[in-house]
């Protein structure tokens, strides 16, 4: 691609960029890809909607939402739940006014409003009169939306009302929801209302209970299943699986299953296809006898004359076989149809090999149902799936098939040597599961696969997959194999060139630590500890960082305090910023993550950990890198860790004599207590009392020593704060001078941009005028041509 010299480059962000046409097409291609017109940026700024930071202004905007333009109304509606929770009770008091404006707005705004109702309902649940608020605002709005002429809005409102119904009591569900649904179900003039009502019957059956469902809701759905209109019958069939969860076994056997069997023989193929949509869920809720009846209907639909029904039946076949749990329900005819799924005539029923994909996806489940007795038949299908041209079938086929049989070893080797990386990734990802399926006596001979795979330095994603499975592999193999092979591989991966590989491997080292500790093999355990400490004492920062990541899960062991705590604390003062950040992240999880077991947060109360955390959080770079959303407690530290101002220092300085007076009074009281104790000793006390008095004297001296140290620390801190503030004042003065210069530079740039934008607007006006003139000329030419054509036709008619 080349730009001709005659063409002028477009005006945009790269206006000042000079491109030499002789340098090659690569630079020109980059220019075209990264070019963004100034006009496009201006349009984005004009289309953007900015929400004010003042909640009162936002509330006023919501109260007058109908006066805003469309994009503002849409933006506020999309974030309505978040805005109401942010504003508070004043927004809830005016919620009726806000909702009423939205209900009178466009359909797109109504759809976004329905999506926000669940969040609003959760907010209203936190209030005292939550039931009344939900009925007054949420349920009332949904009742209005169900009356809409737009089917999508009614369907979306129906889905939302089934969720809101769980927050109401039984009486309100009947009066507010069920009565309206019944009216919609008997609306003979509007088929959409009937379809929505049938769908709501199925969704609300669990909330109304088994008695009402059997006596009324199920009978309504069965009656709508015999409706004269096909869409209503189809929707009634789709709800059979939902109501079957609530109905009794007797009702399912005598009413539901016969109705389902009749619908699988209906003349319209859409209804038969709808039966296949629910056949798996319905079979899961039936007993052995009814399961066999449903299996018979599935076999009949697999030979259906309609192409779409037959295709859908084959797509449901693998999933249907996978739910078989009882040996009485196993049917060999299902397996015969399953083995045909890779045949050419069956593959042609689907699009993009979708039937073969379903076959490969459920192959392990089918194998588990039919067991190794049918493996000779299934192995042929399996080899066809492995050798399939489409890579997706191979990935799906091996994702779970390497769970069960050692005969798949040849297949594993074939897939590991496949040139396609996605297939190789699928094999490596399930490598630990493959080792689970193999007998313990044969596992050691296959562990060399790890050594071969992880040698390729170009395939870092494969090394990452291996690193994530270290803990699982350590559980599968014995101690000797873990020490001789898995430990060297793990240490190598912890020192990988790619950070993702190092991180994944370091997080799994705790499993090796746990295994060697439980094995009571001191040699293996000491070697592992030396390897871990070698990372901590390394001269390379990435190895020290790997040690910190290891400590995240090693801190769950009490032995950590003896083995690694000192090295971990030392790395909190590491000269490399990334290492300190890693230490702070590990400490943040250890200190503030909620406890899920007794091993979590073992060292939270230790002074060394607390002092290390305080030192790290004083560094703004480290503090800003922490995950404040997941652990919001650290947000409080940002407000607490603020430097003292000069006024605070002045206030603290006169407090020193008061502190000294209090300390003198305490010393006098302590001397009096000592004198009293001496008098008691002279009066003939027991030797045990002398020891107690001596211990008390030691405690008092220790307290005095700590207080004196505290005073010295306060004075030194005040002096340090004063020095820091002087340096900050100097920095502020320098920064102000720089800001003034930058502002002047920015003003000049803004003036230039304004001039350029004015020129661009003038150019646009000229171009628009030219385009309008051209359009007028073209219209005239078209009119003249049409007139000429008409005249020619009239002449031809006259001649005829």
TrEMBL record:
Single GO MF annotation: protein phosphatase regulator activity
Region annotated Disordered, chain positions: 655-691, 742-800
Entry keyword Repeat: yes
Residue spans of biased composition, Low complexity class: 655-674, 746-757, 767-777
One GO term describing the cellular component: cytoplasm
Comp. bias (Polar residues): 682-691
Keywords: Repeat
Protein name per UniProt: TOG domain-containing protein
């Amino acid at each position: 691609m080349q730009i001709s010299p005659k063409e002028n480059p477009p005006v945009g962000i790269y206006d000042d960029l000079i491109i030499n046409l002789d340098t090659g097409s690569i630079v020109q291609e980059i220019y075209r890809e990264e070019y963004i017109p100034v006009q496009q940026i201006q349009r984005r700024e004009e289309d953007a909607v900015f929400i004010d930071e003042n909640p009162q202004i936002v509330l006023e905007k919501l109260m007058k939402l109908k006066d805003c333009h469309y994009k503002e109304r849409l933006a506020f509606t999309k974030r309505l739940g978040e805005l109401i929770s942010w504003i508070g009770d004043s927004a809830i008091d005016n919620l009726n006014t806000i909702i009423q404006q939205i209900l009178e707005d466009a359909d797109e705004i109504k759809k976004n409003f329905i999506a926000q109702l669940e969040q609003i309902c959760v907010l209203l649940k936190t209030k005292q009169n939550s039931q009344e608020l939900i009925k007054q605002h949420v349920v009332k709005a949904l009742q209005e939306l169900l009356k809409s002429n737009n089917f999508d809005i009614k369907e979306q409102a129906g889905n939302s009302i089934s969720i809101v119904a769980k927050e109401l009591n039984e009486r309100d569900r009947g009066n507010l929801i069920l009565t309206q649904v019944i009216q919609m179900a008997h609306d003979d003039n509007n088929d959409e209302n009937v379809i929505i009502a049938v769908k709501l019957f199925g969704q609300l059956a669990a909330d109304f209970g088994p008695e009402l469902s059997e006596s009324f809701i199920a009978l309504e759905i069965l009656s709508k299943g015999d409706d004269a209109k096909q869409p209503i019958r189809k929707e009634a069939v789709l709800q059979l699986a939902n109501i079957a969860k609530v109905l009794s076994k007797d009702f399912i056997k005598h009413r539901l299953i016969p109705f389902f069997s009749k619908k699988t023989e209906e003349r319209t193929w859409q209804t038969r296809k709808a039966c296949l949509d629910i056949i798996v869920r319905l079979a899961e809720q039936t007993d052995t006898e009814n399961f066999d009846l449903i299996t018979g209907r599935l076999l009949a639909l697999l030979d259906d004359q309609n192409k779409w029904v037959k295709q859908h039946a084959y797509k449901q076949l693998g999933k249907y076989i996978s739910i078989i749990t009882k040996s009485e329900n196993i049917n060999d005819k299902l397996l015969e149809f399953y083995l045909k799924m890779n045949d050419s005539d069956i593959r042609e029923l689907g699009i993009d090999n979708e039937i073969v994909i379903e076959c490969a996806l459920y192959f392990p489940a089918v194998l588990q149902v039919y067991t190794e007795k049918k493996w000779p038949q299934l192995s042929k299908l399996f080899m066809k799936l492995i050798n399939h041209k489409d890579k997706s079938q191979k990935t799906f086929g091996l994702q779970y098939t390497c769970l069960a049989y050692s005969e798949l070893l040849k297949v594993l080797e074939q897939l590991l040597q496949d040139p396609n990386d996605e297939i190789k990734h699928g094999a490596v990802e399930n490598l630990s599961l493959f080792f689970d399926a193999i007998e313990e006596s044969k596992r050691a001979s296959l562990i060399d696969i790890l050594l071969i795979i992880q040698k390729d330095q170009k395939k870092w994603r494969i090394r990452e997959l291996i690193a994530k499975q270290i803990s699982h592999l350590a559980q599968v193999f014995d101690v000797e194999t873990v020490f001789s092979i898995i430990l060297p591989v793990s240490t190598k991966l912890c020192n990988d060139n790619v950070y993702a590989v190092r991180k994944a491997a370091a997080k799994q080292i705790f499993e090796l630590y746990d295994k060697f500790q439980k094995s009571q093999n001191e040699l293996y355990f000491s070697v592992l500890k030396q390897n871990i400490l070698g990372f901590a004492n390394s001269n390379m920062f990435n190895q020290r960082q790997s040690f910190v990541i290891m400590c995240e899960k090693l801190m769950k062991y009490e032995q950590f305090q003896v083995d690694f705590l000192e090295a971990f604390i030392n790395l909190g003062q590491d000269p490399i910023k990334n290492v300190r950040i890693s230490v702070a992240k590990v400490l943040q999880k250890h200190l503030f993550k909620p406890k899920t077991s007794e091993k979590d947060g073992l060292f939270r109360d230790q002074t060394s950990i607390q002092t290390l955390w305080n030192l790290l959080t004083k560094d703004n770079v480290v503090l800003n890198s922490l995950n404040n959303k997941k652990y919001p407690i650290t947000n409080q530290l940002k407000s607490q860790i603020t430097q003292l101002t000069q006024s605070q220092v002045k206030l603290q300085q006169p407090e020193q004599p008061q502190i000294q007076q209090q300390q003198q009074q305490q010393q006098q009281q302590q001397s009096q207590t000592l004198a009293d104790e001496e008098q008691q000793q002279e009066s003939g006390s027991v030797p045990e009392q002398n020891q107690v008095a001596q211990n008390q004297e030691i405690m008092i001296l220790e307290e005095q020593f700590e207080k004196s140290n505290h005073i010295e620390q306060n004075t030194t801190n005040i002096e340090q704060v004063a020095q820091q503030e002087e340096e900050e004042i100097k920095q502020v003065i320098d920064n102000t001078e720089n800001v003034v210069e930058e502002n002047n530079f920015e003003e000049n740039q803004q003036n230039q941009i304004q001039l350029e934008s004015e020129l661009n607007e003038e150019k646009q006006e000229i171009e628009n005028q030219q385009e309008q003139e051209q359009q007028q000329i073209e219209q005239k030419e078209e009119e003249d041509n049409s007139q000429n054509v008409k005249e020619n036709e009239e002449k031809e008619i006259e001649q005829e």
